[in-house]
Structures are given as C-alpha cells and as structure tokens.
Amino acid sequence: MYYPINLKEFTKDSINNIDIDEDLLKELLIKNILECPYSTFPYMSGKNSKESQELYGCGNCVAMSINLQKLLKKHNIKSKLVPATIPKMYYMPDFLDVSHVAVLILKNNAEAYLIDPAFYFLEPMKININDRENRGISWQNVYRGIEEDLTYNTQMLNEDLKYNEYQTIPENTYMVETFRKNDTSDKWRYYLTEIKNPDNAISSFNLTSKKFPFMATLDDKLKLKLFIKYLDRDNVKIKYDGNELYTGDYDNIPDDIMQTISPQLSKHFGKSYKKSIKCPANADTKIYKLTDTIKKKKRKSSTKKKKRKSSNKKNNKSVKFKSNNSYI
Fold it and tell me: What is this structure's pTM?
C-alpha cells in the first residue's frame, strides 16, 4: 500500500513577478487557520484532500495547504506544496519519515516564503538560499494553548537522502531545518521541491496509521474551540472551550452537548453532521489509497492536449536549487 513520493523541480513559471505584501501573507495565514480547520472526518467517506477542502472546508495538512493556496491565488500569488518531516509532538510510530506538506511562495530566484498551515505558523518563514544564519518566527502550539518561538535555517543536501524505499530527496535540494527554541534536539525539515502526489504518498499512509478520526477547530484567539477525537470505533472524547464535555460511546452523547458543539460541526458538514462524524465500523482496519485528482469527464480532443503539453515543455524550464549557484 506504499506509494513512492513524486517530486518535481520548480520552474520559472512558479516564481511570482509581483511585489508580495508580507502583512497580507500574515492576514491570509490567520484567515486560513480559522476558515479551514484540521479534520480527518471527510476522508472516512472516501474523499481526498481536494474534495475535503471543496465540500467541507476542512481536512488534513494537504487540504489546509490547498485552502491557503486558493486564498493566495485570489491575490495573484502563486504557490507550491512542498514535503516535510514532522516534530516529535506530531509523530506516530507507523508514519513514514516524510509525512507532511506545507506551502512555498517563490519570491524570486533566491528568496521565498514558507508557510505551514497545519502547524499554525503565525508568520511566514523568510527564505534566502544565500543566507544560512538562524532566523525565527512564532507558531501557535494549539494543544498546549500557547505561542512558541521556532528557529530555522536553510541548508542544502550534498547527496541523495534516502529515507526509505519510497522516499528519496535528491541531491542539491535546499531544505529548511526547523526546531523549537526550547527543544533544539527536536528538528524537522521542509524540502524546497514540489510534491506532486501528497495524498497518494503521504495522506494515504498517515490516515491508515492514525485509524480513528478527529477534528480541531480554533476560536478568534487561536485557542482550541472544539476538539473531537475517537479513542476507538465507538468511544469519542469531546472538548469545548478548554473543557472536557464528554468521553464515551458516540451514540450516547447527551443532547445538550451535541447542541453545544453543533454550530462548529454544521459549519463544515451541514445538517447531516451527525452522520459525517460517525466513526465507520472498519476504521481500525481501513487501508487508504487516495488519489490526488478529482475524477472528471475525459476530453474529446486529445490532439489539443498533446499540443499543450508540448508547448509547456518548451516554456517551463527548470529552476533548480544548486550548490554552485546563488539562485533558486
């Protein structure tokens, strides 16, 4: 059930040829956190991240990143998804090494902005491949309810990095090594190369490993508003505004508690939210095999498609991170 990670070098078309307002980026990343919460419930019914984001306005790190990309696009800002490892606080024993994605905005040939929606960055990382000094940003540790400092620096791989049979990061790839200021040993990396199959290669495995669904929504102060997590196929834990409201069988949730959390759930799942957050009987054995596309009707004309592909190959020259060049 493993799928090889599919990576692609950036092209010149990926670079933004406009001035990017950093205050706007901060505004959009906060908007994204509040608008598109982390949830694995949509995947239980067979949706991929694009569908989760479009239909329910929530999802995993891929869906949250897609939502941010759409917000950026409204301001004519282009972006790409990039693969990453994760810190210990989010790691599970059965995860593959590269088990996360974030959003990269290429500013020019040497600079970029990196935003991690699912890790609740409060500001973008400013990347300059010619600057290897430590820099810092803030992030929200939502499960502890505090704001923390992150330190990061830019490095480059001098040789291929093979994590496992399915995940190899090629040499000359730039990476952003990150760690919490109060725990320098807990490091994770963002690789500055586009991932083309995040659901196929990452979400499928993560969801199979996690087994049971959960959801976390935040309030305007970026504190946990609703946290609902299944402990097994039948039993669920519910926290609301920092208080534990219920732990027990889903079918026995008191009406008053369901009424309290219903606004948060109906916002994403509509009137059928009770059905949408019902854990399926096969949750602990389900094997996910997600695709990264939404099935559409086949186009009649294959000739135009071939011409378009040929044209793209001519125009989109690779923009590669190389050790002997001071540009992306």
Answer: 0.89
